[in-house]
Design a protein that fits this description.
With 133 residues, the chain is an alpha/beta fold. 22% of the residues lie in helices and 29% in strands. A hairpin with a 4-residue loop joins strand 4 (66-71) and strand 5 (76-83). It starts with a strand and ends with a strand.
């Protein structure tokens, strides 16, 4: 899974708390070659801005956040809870931070979009519509 060719300035800011950064970095390192979103998450953590929960300019997607987003590939809107892999359940609307979409959503604020290329070479993208902690 490769991030599309953007200049670093074109990528949206990725906000994480120190606690989430440690958890997410460890997950990304452990799963980079095994989980579909592991490399996306590792790339996001490499450029993350570590903040206190109230420091970011807007609410941002964190572990446990409820997120409304638009899948830019299918133009469908979904509402999910971003969760740790052990808590993920598609049937209950909880997506793992190690899924490609979960990894892409982490750290974004409402209005931000993130694009990547999946292992089959297809362009993928998400745009955050709303975030609730």
């Amino acid at each position: 899974m490769n991030i599309q060719h953007h200049s670093p300035e074109a990528l949206p800011a990725v906000y994480v708390t120190e606690t989430d950064f440690e958890i997410l970095s460890n997950l990304a390192d452990a799963a980079a070659g095994r989980a579909p979103g592991g490399r996306v998450l590792a790339g996001e953590m490499a450029r993350a801005v570590i903040v206190e929960p109230g420091e970011a300019p807007h609410p941002f997607v964190r572990i446990g956040s409820r997120v409304a987003y638009r899948d830019l590939s299918s133009d469908q809107t979904r509402i999910v809870h971003v969760s740790l892999p052990r808590d993920a359940s598609i049937d209950e609307g909880r997506i793992s931070v190690l899924s490609p979409v979960g990894a892409a959503l982490i750290g974004l604020t409402a209005g931000e979009a993130f694009h990547w290329t999946d292992p089959e070479g297809r362009a993928r993208g998400v745009r955050v519509l709303a975030v609730q902690d």
